[in-house]
């Protein structure tokens, strides 16, 4: 936090100094686009390239320039008061500014927040700006240590003691600490499957931490899983549907991130994530009921094979996606219910976990 | 649970007896539509009328009839084994049935589940069938008592000790018990506002339970709030946006339910819910930034004034909606941030709570 405040002061001072010397101040942001992204398996996530864009104070940019500075000042206030503001609240804060620097739409203030995030090369949660929605629930072998905001007392949250309920991940997870004897994190696509595994205490028999992603994981959920994997030094296994969305969107985002937010991938991606399933081979092996691939699914496979640096790096993923395309079907993680409601607990997961070394990368 | 099993056996026996006497068996369901709903403020929620539809075994109905019986048998198994199945899983269970009684789409199995729910006049969660998604988080003066499914040990979940996190409501809440000294439940529309109130331990200063609804509350969230209100004998205050969606959809559903699921309203509606705000008067009084009403907003107001039995019952709501229409604007619960990020905590909520008797009904 101290570092960040210092960084903000330096940036502001540099701009002020330029102005006092009657020079034009500039802010330099990394270019946020797929064309400025690279994937190196040793690093493990999409990295930002070296291309940057510069915003120099001029007639055309004066409003955005001023808005950026004002928003940086708000970030400083948030950090100093240990408070948070959602992107929507940030927009309303700006409604109280002078007419000349107000935003007319939230998309404008969101862009400024993205720029600031990229400028300081930290996730904006550390600047106090948090997303509106979060999702993400947790159960299993994990003690989360938070603190009471009034008394500063440590609060120990034991995720083995939620019964049928769960721990709901906060919007910002920077301050949390963890204790655990878990062997891995199981990141689950649907809330329904999570609920089944919680209901039957699957975490107990397999000594793990269950996390419900609820589709493509939110920033808070990604950051939380990242921190679990790093702090506890354990792998993350993704349990998602066997379809292009589960593979190329949910799993890919969890593991290596996305192109247009590459400046934050370092803090959000989980390079140790591995694909537990469902795989195209599982569809055959477990004789799962399937659905036909839709046009959009096939298009997504073709796109991934052609443009996704992650898929292009791994022959295994190219083969899996090509196999899926040839089979012409997809299967959901709930499909095991056709054999038996708890087949997933008694058969599928134990059988897969016994050969974790063979998971798709 | 015993009662329900008995009811299932009786229903099945009646059908079996008819068949053995070589008569045509029937199942009788309440008609599920707005035309079969009435609102009596003394009851407090939309009630099912007396219209019913009958399904008699015949050539045209034999498949649905058989599917209903098979699904009732699955419900019996779920209750006996204390397990759950999501609607999606129920669909996959049926994939394992004989060809003749399989569903081709999930919409078909969903309809059968709705029928069974109406047939037994209980929410389908008690039959073991749970929704896919749930939402709903809780923080504040509440001890939830759940149990460990393996050891049957009681688990005390203290919602004052989650720090910045929260308790995530399980998909089925029937088995939970509660202890609390809270004076009321504050049901909040957005996850962002919930997070702010949690961050600043608002529940402590106001002695309440905070529940995040995340838009229109899910069945699990509605049932949870209902049970809090009933078991703890405390009122529920809804804190939502001042727009037709917040009023006529979120709040109305929370309090009196919806037309097409009136058979479950008894177990899901919260007649003691009152509208804390944001009200059209608040927009003036707190000088909130607003957005123009869209076409769809105006249409929703007109619809509610004309067709909604709840709005038609309360002159106060008609006046409020007409005022909003005349003002031509709407305001969000985050709009208070324009004054000060925590204005809602230091000013708005305390000022409103001081005059809870004046809340809209």
Count of DSSP H/I helices of chain A: 14
Strand order of the largest sheet of chain A: 10-7-13-12-14-15
Mean pLDDT of chain A: 91
What can be said about the biggest beta sheet of chain A?
6 strands, mixed
| Percent helix range of chain A | 40-55%
Q: Biggest interface between protein chains, with counts per chain?
A: A-B, 57 and 57 residues
Strand content of chain A: 15-25%
What would the principal axes of the Cα set say about the shape of chain A?
A: globular
Low confidence ranges of chain A: none
β-strand number of chain A: 17
Please identify the oligomeric state: homodimer
Q: Over all CA atoms, what is the radius of gyration of chain A? A: 23 Å
Structural class of chain A: alpha/beta
Distance between the termini of chain A: 35 Å
Molecular structure report:
The structure is a homodimer of 361-residue chains. Chain A is of the alpha/beta class. Chain A has a 6-stranded mixed sheet with strand order 10-7-13-12-14-15, with helices on both faces. In chain A, a hairpin with a 6-residue loop joins β2 and β3. In chain A, α2 packs across α4 and α3 packs across α4. The radius of gyration of chain A is 23 Å and the shape is globular. The mean pLDDT of chain A is 91. Chains A and B meet through β5, α3, β8, β10 and α5 of A and β5, α3, β8, β10 and α5 of B.
């Amino acid at each position: 936090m101290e570092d960040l405040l210092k960084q903000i002061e330096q940036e502001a001072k540099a701009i002020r100094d330029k102005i006092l010397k009657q020079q034009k101040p500039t802010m330099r942001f990394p270019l946020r686009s797929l064309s400025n992204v690279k994937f190196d398996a040793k690093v493990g996530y999409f990295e930002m390239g070296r291309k940057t864009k510069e915003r120099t104070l001029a007639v055309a940019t004066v409003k955005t320039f001023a808005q950026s500075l004002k928003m940086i000042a708000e970030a400083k206030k948030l950090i100093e008061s240990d408070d948070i503001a959602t992107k929507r609240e940030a927009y309303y804060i700006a409604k109280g500014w002078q007419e000349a620097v107000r935003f007319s739409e939230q998309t404008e203030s969101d862009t400024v927040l993205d720029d600031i995030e990229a400028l300081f090369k930290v996730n904006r949660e550390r600047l106090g700006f948090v997303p509106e929605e979060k999702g993400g629930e947790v159960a299993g072998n994990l003690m989360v240590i938070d603190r009471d905001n009034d008394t500063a007392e440590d609060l120990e949250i034991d995720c083995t003691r939620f019964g049928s309920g769960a721990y709901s991940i906060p919007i910002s997870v920077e301050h949390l600490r963890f204790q655990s004897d878990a062997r891995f994190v199981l990141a689950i696509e649907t809330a329904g499957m999570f609920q089944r595994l919680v209901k039957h205490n699957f975490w107990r028999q397999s000594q793990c931490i269950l996390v419900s992603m609820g589709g493509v994981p939110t920033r808070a959920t990604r950051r939380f899983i990242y921190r679990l994997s790093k702090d506890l030094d354990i792998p993350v296994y993704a349990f998602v549907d066997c379809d292009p969305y589960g593979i190329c969107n949910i799993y890919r985002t969890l593991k290596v991130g996305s192109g247009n937010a590459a400046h934050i991938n370092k803090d959000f991606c989980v390079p140790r994530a591995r694909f537990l399933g469902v795989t195209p081979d599982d569809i055959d092996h477990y004789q799962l009921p399937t659905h036909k691939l839709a046009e959009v699914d096939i298009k997504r496979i073709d796109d991934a094979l052609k443009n996704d640096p992650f898929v292009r790096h791994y022959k295994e993923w190219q083969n899996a996606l090509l196999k899926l395309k040839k089979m012409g079907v997809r299967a959901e993680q709930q499909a095991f219910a056709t054999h038996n409601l708890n087949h997933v607990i008694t058969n599928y997961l134990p059988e897969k976990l016994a050969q974790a070394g063979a998971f798709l990368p």
